[in-house]
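From the shared-data thread, chain only:
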Amino acid sequence: MGDHHDLGGQEHRNDEIPIHTVRVDSFYMAATEITNRQYKEYLSAALVEGLLQVRDGLVYRAGGKELYCDTSRTDPASSIEWDGRDFTVASDREAHP
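Structure, as tokens:
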């Protein structure tokens, strides 16, 4: 992992080097993308069913350490917003994958 050809430009050098090997654990991948709106609907339904919980702006499996996603509270770039009660999607980001 890393920028082998300096394609990121000088502004990204600090997070693209040193080039290193990365191991990726198994993960799930869908055949099609889902939108932020669809993911928000899943999160809301799972919250009602008690399958997940939000702790300090991070969304976890209920009672577990498995992180599902962050929210705009912990990462301003996140399209998923949490107001302490409900999930919403950032303006103009509903149809984004």
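The helical segments are 13-16, 36-48.
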